[in-house]
Prior knowledge:
Blueprint: E1 3-8, E2 15-21, E3 30-35, E4 38-48, H1 52-55, E5 61-66, H2 69-95, E6 101-107, E7 113-119, H3 127-137, E8 140-145, H4 148-155, H5 166-169, H6 179-184, H7 191-194, H8 209-217, E9 225-228, E10 231-239, E11 244-249, E12 254-258, E13 263-264, H9 267-275, H10 298-303, H11 320-331
Parallel strand pairs: 2-5, 7-8
Antiparallel strand pairs: 1-2, 1-4, 3-4, 3-5, 6-7, 9-10, 9-13, 10-11, 11-12
Helix pairs in contact: 2-3
Amino acid sequence: MTHVVRVEFSGPARAQYCVAGEGRVCLGDMVVVETEWGVGMGHVAAVLSSEAVERMKSSLRPLVRKATPTDLSRRAALVQRERDARAFCRDRILARSLPMKLTEVRIGLDSSKAMFYFTADGRVDFRELVKDLVQHLRTRVELRQIGVRDEAKVLGCAGACGRPVCCHTFLPGFAPVSIRMAKDQNLALNPGKLSGICGRLKCCLAYEHCHYADLKRALPKVGSHVATSRGAGVIRGQNILEQSVVVNLETGGQVTLRVSEVSLQPRSETAARAQGPGRAVSPRPEETPPGGNPAPKDSERSTGRRPRRQGSRQSAEPTNGEEISRDLAALEDP
């Protein structure tokens, strides 16, 4: 009977699903599997039913065998070899003045391949560095550039909540996170509070977003005109979790009411009440002399020239709001 197992590796939250075949595999067994850095070794964290084979066929890798005592001793020796390779690579990066930062080194169990992960602001010509690494390790070498989120996943740290960051402990991948999620949860749009150690939006913003979005649909939007037991008013605030709204009454004052205590009021009725029972008097257009040019205003007669039109020139200096908007937009970068 074919089984699908979840194999987890040492280091950051990295796992993959493998086909165990006909062999018997139990929880906690050390197994040898094929990985992106060659043949790797990890432990079985979960055994799934055969029904998962059809659903996960595209992402499954073969399980080579159960780990033998020879594999365990070889893996212990590779840990020290990875440390030496990391130190050598960093020395060569400094010697060649390459604008890159080494993050992680992985060497396959059979030493047929070595994978070096790094971060950089742009593209880096590391061909000479690859030659140095191949000559030093005597194996196939691959360098892969990763983003700042993956760097935080590898290095790990304590987050703003005081716990280890989620990407290092249990998150297998990164879900899209946007500023809209923070707005839907009525969070302050402060880049310092919304960003994690990677400098991007916190992954935890997406954890409860679906719940907040469902609750927010039941609330009237800010600026809506509503009718209450205390009179008509306008929505000026929302409390999503408590399902209440802040209403500015037309008679004066501000009240907090449950969503069941307010009802949306059509815009036409509100406009008619604000206009009053009489007919609205439209403003009389300015008279134009026979010549076709409008008559000058009093201020123009006294100075002899037309006043400068406001807003014709905009200041080149960005406002504080524009700077914050740019900072928030940068948090959404991958």
